[in-house]
Amino acid sequence: MPHRTDIQVRFSDTDAQGHLNNTAYAVYAELARADLLDALRGPDTYLLLAEMTLRFQSQVRFGQAVHVTTDVQEVGESSVTLEQTVYADDEAAATVTSVVVLFDARAQAPKAFPERVRKRLEAGEPLG
Q1: What are the boundaries of the signal sequence (predicted)?
Q2: Which one, of 55, 68, 51, lies nearest residue 96 by Cα?
């Protein structure tokens, strides 16, 4: 079951024609990633976006109900691949594939997921 994050669309997320600006999709995907993975952050530990692909499918207009679903596709030693879908009024509007890396700022290197975290990620459970 994918993790769902409801999005509050702001008027400033749209262009002069009332369409959702293309950069807002990336911000919404980021909010949903943080919603799923936020508990991994800690002192000197960060989540770095290593890769992102965004495919637009349909327009989103101000006033539509928007949410993002997030599915864990693959869990590596220190990275996780996520597949996300941005929905407007329950219709798919964009898909986002991203790779996020757990990063140790002190060591300036990727940090392995603890085993309990890996198991929860593999089950697609939110960590927050």
Answers
A1: none
A2: 55
Token pair of 68 as six digits? 């993002």
Nearest residue to 7 (alpha-carbon basis) of 60, 63, 66, 62: 66
Query: What's the pLDDT tens digit per position in 25-46?
Result: 999 999 999 888 876 776 777 8
- The tokens for 111 are 């940090």
Q: What is the spatial distance between Cα 92 and Cα 99, in angstroms, rounded to a whole number?
A: 21
Neighbouring C-beta atoms of residue 87, cutoff 10 Å: 19
How do residues 80-96 score in pLDDT, each as one tens digit? 999 999 999 999 999 99
pTM over 0.85: yes
Radius of gyration of the chain (CA): 15
Q: What six digits make up the tokens of 97?
A: 């594939």
